[in-house]
Give the backbone structure.
Amino acid sequence: MIDAITLEVMWNRLIAVVNEQAAALMRTSFTTIVRESGDLSAGVFDTRGNMIAQAVTGTPGHINAMATCIHHFLAVYPADTLRPGDVLITNDPQKTSGHLHDFTVITPVFSAPDVGREARLVGFFGNTCHVLDIGGRGLGTDARSVYEEGLFVPITKLYDAGVENRELLKLLAANVRTPEPVLGDIHAQVAGNDVGGRRLIEFMDEFALESLEPLADAIIDRSERAMRAAIAALPDGEWRNIVYSDGYEEPVRLEVTLTKLGDEIWVDWAGSSPESTRGINVVLNYTHAYTTYALKCALAPEVPNNEGSFRPVHVSAPPGSILNAQPPAAVGARHIIGHFLPGAIFGALAQIIPERVMAEGAANIWNIQLTG
């Protein structure tokens, strides 16, 4: 049992570790989209794949999606098969943050071997970055399937026991318009995780921690209890809202139903438009990311964002809908629709807690994309 004062000290040290992880990534990045825009996420996970803490820099579509996607990595490479020096990578839209431009890199962290004892897995560091180019038609809505949008890298090893997968990097370099910044940012992702891993081992040595699990359980359980308490404070009931946005074939309908019972809440996007023929479709992982983000902002913004704060929230959308797009649907500009989800949820919550939600706005980000 960790006492409250020690837990607070250790929690703040973990935040410092993941912030240093993100800082190392940004300082070694080759591109302004990572270095200046902060289009990234960084976090630390226990050996079971539960997110414990995240860096302060990042986007909900990255960090909340990464909290789910690490379990896909562990399904392909179970924890007991990993070795020191392994680094995993993918840009699978369905399993990560929704489009091919985002690479997620996961690095297992091992304790130093001791006399009579091999190195032990103590946790994972992960980050997601938006790379400058991934080939294909480029970032946008023009593609009619994911195959047109660029190079797809399934979950694979970027490093195997410390040996770089040069064939994968050669393949990447040959398929993107800007190989130097793309490969540079991927190596920056590896470097960020490496910094985080070294700091985690120092932290565990300082506090004489044999395992990260007791600390992870304490942090996650407290976050879960706080999130459940915030949900329980709402009256039981069901609330709906509908938001429309310009589409291609027809206007896009985003319909949400919130059902609250006890200390849990269900968010159902049934009634939303079907998949579009253009690259504005959203995968369920991204839908989950921005749904949980909106609820946390409205109900418990002070609660740490980790595995515990996600547990009382259940998200669903019909397969084949624009918010649960199935392969090979085009997803390159999934944020165009995904960024409307918080506003839709706020509209439903305004029926019961109007003083705690912001007024409806343009929702989507307005930015200029220059390529050449």
Notes: DSSP finds ten helices and eleven strands in the chain. Residues 25 and 104 are 13 Å apart (CA to CA).
